[in-house]
Every structure is written in structure tokens, then in C-alpha cells.
Amino acid sequence: MREEIIRRTEQFLREKLAPMEQYEDIGRRAMDYRIEHSLRVANIGREIALREGFDEEKCVVACILHDVGYAIKYTEREDFRNHGRYGAEIARPFLSELGYSELEVAEMCYGIAIHVDDKADFEGERTPLALTVGDADNIDRLDVYRLYENLHFKDYVNLSIKDQKAYCDKHLAGLTRLRAMEFGTVTATELWREKIDYRLGFIGKLNAQIENSSIDKLLR
Ligand SMILES: [Fe+2]
Ligand SMILES: [Fe+2]
To answer: How many helices (H) and strands (E) are present in the chain, helices listed first?
Structure first.
């Protein structure tokens, strides 16, 4: 990978997302989170590209830019659904500027466009690289940082024991369903299952500990 290309891409993302800092309802941390998440997605994309044997740099660049569509302030739910397609539009001239060929730009943009709801507003091919953008995004969303975040936002420690248990049961059922999902590459499917299994283990242990926190278990 060329260091200059990676640095320029990260810089471009920062410039495009800078207005997020002004949005009163989301603020600075939301912008930082988006950048940090994009870089984590790029690291996952890199691992997939290396293990699957396709172009590492293009995959990393597309992953860094996958959420650049957040540069547009969303007011409607529809805008959020469109952020992949908006992102492809924003990324396209920049990717050409980096010197990528028309075909290369098309593949990267297609990956960015379909990463939210699997739909693009232009024709493209579902290559392993294009599919990896959304796959890496999903894998990051199931990793430990987001698990911590979920518990934090839920204010888990302040829930009643009954609600803590209900949260675990619901989460475990959802994870079991999600585990069956197939991804664009064997590596992505493996990474996904690895994250799911970690969560199943963690939430499973949490659930068991909660059961031990009431008298009911002793009376069984
Ligand atoms: Fe996204
Ligand atoms: Fe994302």
C-alpha cells in the first residue's frame, strides 16, 4: 500500500466530515466516532483483502471512505438509508484524483454505494472487494467496542435485574439468528462468526451471572 494514498484518503474523510462537528444534535464525538469506525473498517477490510488475495490498497481506501456520505446532514430516515449512495458520489472524483482508473473507481464506488442496503443507483459488479466494504462495516458493528457502547447507552448497570436478564435473552436470540448470515468472502464469514461467538460467550456468561444474583436459583 502507498502511504501517501492512505494519508490523503484519511485527510479527505476528515475534511468531508468536519461539518458534523457543528451539528448541535450530534457534535464532535460523533464525528470522531465516525472517523475511528471508518479506520477500524479499513483494518478489517485490509485483513480480508490480504487473506483473500485481492487488492489491499483499493479495499482499504474504499473502506476508509465507506461512510463519507455522512458529510450530508441527514434530516429524514431516507437520507440515512441513502448514505452509501451519497458517499459513492462524493468519493468518485476524489478517487479519480488519486489516479485510479475508471474501472477501479467504479468497483470502489459500487462497494461504498451498496454497503447500507445492498442497492446502488448505478450498474456495478458484486466483486469480493465491493462486497468487503459492507462486510467489514458489519463486522466492526458486532465487535467489542460496540458491545460496550450498547450496554452503556442502554444504561445496563442501572436496569432492574429482570430487565438485565430480558436484555440478555433478547440479545442471545438475535445473535443466534445473525450467526447464520453469509458474507461475500470466506474470510469475512469467519471474522463475523468469530465476533458473534465472542458476544454469545460474553452475554451468555453475563446471563448466567445474573441468574446467580437472585434467590430463585438456590431454590431450584
Ligand atoms: Fe454506513
Ligand atoms: Fe459504517
So the answer is: 11, 0
Q: What's the CA gap between 62 and 58, in Å, rounded?
A: 6
d(CA 61, CA 56): 9
For 22-77, the pLDDT digits (tens) are: 776 665 678 899 999 999 999 999 999 999 999 999 999 999 999 999 988 777 77
Cell 467504479 sits on residue: 106
pTM of the model: 0.92
CB 118 within 8 A of CB 29: no
DSSP conformational letter for 118:
S
Is residue 42 within 8 A of residue 64, CB to CB? The reply is yes
**% helix, strand, coil for the chain, step of 5:** 75, 0, 25
Cα(84) to ligand 2 centroid in Å equals 9
* Tally of CB atoms within 10 A around 215: 6
From the CA of 195, how far away is ligand 2's center (Å)?
16
| Distance of CA 115 from the midpoint of ligand 1 (Å) | 6
Ligand nearest to the CA of 136: 2
Looking at the CA of 63, name the nearest ligand. Answer: 2
Question: Residue 108: exposed, middle, or buried by beta-carbon count in 10 A (0-12, 13-18, 19+)?
Answer: buried
